[in-house]
Amino acid sequence: MPFLSDEALKDELNARGYRATPQRQKVLSIFMELTQGEHLSAEDLHKLLEKDGERISLSTVYRTLHLMVYMGLLRELELAEGHKHYELNRPLKDHHHIVCVHCNTTVEFAEGSIAQIGERTASSAGYHVLDCQLTLYGICANCTALQKAG
Q: 104 and 80 in contact (C-beta within 8 Å)?
């Protein structure tokens, strides 16, 4: 989905029967300002909003995130066990993650062959691929070094 201006977001929300509240516009603007590869949890987003002087409850943040995922504006990622993170839904098929299971550090990487394998497999099963994500879980070099030292 293309990135939306405030006016386009308002039109898109209205077309789907939702209001374009200042909080929803602020949430989208925060995600649009993030550097590529940066992810936010609902709690992280809530802290940023409070820091900016926004009076918004954590439950409203969750509802807004779920709505924006539903609309295709944000992508929901389960990078660390029990922790969902969100990022702007950029049209990238070669967008994958490596997550350390000890410290939850996340590294993004691009590898075209993963999407190619996925598309071939999906095509043979009669599917059209909308998105391809691979998440690898392991132990980062820092945590490995700490384990060896300890």
A: yes
What total number of domains does the chain contain? 2
- Check: CB of residue 95 under 8 Å from CB of residue 106: no
Q: What is the CATH number of the domain that holds 53?
A: 1.10.10.10
Sequence-distant (≥ 6) Cβ neighbours of residue 19 within 8 angstroms: 13
pLDDT digits (tens, 9 = 90+) for 31-84: 888 887 788 999 999 999 999 999 899 999 999 999 988 887 888 887 766 678
The pTM for the full model equals: 0.67
- Return d(Cα 37, Cα 85) in angstroms, integer: 11
Yes or no: say if 129 and 116 are a contact pair by the CB < 8 Å rule.
no
Distance CA 74, CA 69 (A): 5
Residue 98 structure tokens: 């490596």
Residues 80 and 22 in one domain: yes
Side chain identity, residue 138: G
Range of the domain at 122: 92-150
**CATH for 116:** 3.30.1490.190
Answer yes or no: are the C-beta atoms of 28 and 9 closer than 8 Å: yes
CB atoms within 10 A of CB 82: 5
C-beta of residue 93 within 8 angstroms of C-beta of residue 132: yes
